[in-house]
What does this fold into?
Amino acid sequence: MGSPQGRIPELRKDSVTNRWVIFSPARAKRPSDFKSKSPTTTQTQQQQDCPFCLGHEHQCAPEIFRVPPSSGPHWKIRVIENLYPALSRTLADPSAQYPILNPNPNPGSGVKVLGGFGFHDVVIETPVHSVQLSDLSPQEVGEVLLAYKKRIEQLSTHDSIKFVQVFKNHGASAGASMSHSHSQILALPVVPADVSARLDSMNGFFHETGKCSICEVGVEDLLIDESTHFFAIVPFAATFPFEIWIIPRHHSSHFHELDGAKIIPQLTVVAGFEIGTGCHINPVFPEDAAKVLREVQNSE
Ligand code: AMP
Ligand code: ZN
It folds into this structure.
């Protein structure tokens, strides 16, 4: 299946905010099975139209790999190309000439424009439309995490890929356009400013104290749950209500070495003040959120 026609994607750096912005006209064309369906649409009708369902593989962009690898029609997980990618894997790899100043509207001005090279994949977490990630067994969830790990390892072999983000939008209110359980992997040719700021902050903490700020995280009131290898907390200065960090006990710095994930329920709207200042207002104290989450955990 061909990719949607249109202008090629581009990354532009805003020299005021120091932020890279991805311009990707193809994204506007992506369908949504949340918006287009009436309330009377049945599960069967949804499945008939869903490209992520078993048997509809031909409606998807090309497959990268499936789990198990030679499972034929009996796959459990598929990692596929995004049909409406934010970045293009077919553009020239910019690693040789980074940063590409082409097309630069004002050469010599310091304006940074990068061709929109990158990878945008979809991970279909189950062949069955009605099954959500939370319905899977711990072992099956583990297989999804291992699929992320395998794909990140593949992407990290590209010299020009500087950062890989795995993310999952669950439900229309979290920004999802497809109801079939899936997540996405976006590999960028730049390190986003918020990520660099986090790394700089941790670096600063290390130089000041000789310690890793994640390892040093105080867990007493903030702990939700723990296992042999991980513990889950509400961070001390959580940006969002009921934000959760899952942190590995073993110190590691990359997700594909099974690093900590973040879970951020979208309970508040990022509005004018947050957009204007980057400073977030969280109505729930982290220690109160942790208490509620511990109670939910215990009542299950
Ligand atoms: P979300 O918007 O978070 O639900 O993610 C769904 C993703 O699936 C979007 O980024 C779409 O571009 C992508 N998508 C939609 N239809 C297809 C398809 N037929 N093949 C591959 N990717 C698709
Ligand atoms: Zn489906």
Notes: The first helix runs from residue 43 to 49. Confidence is low (pLDDT under 50) at residues 1-5, 96-102. The CA atoms of residues 19 and 64 lie 30 Å apart.
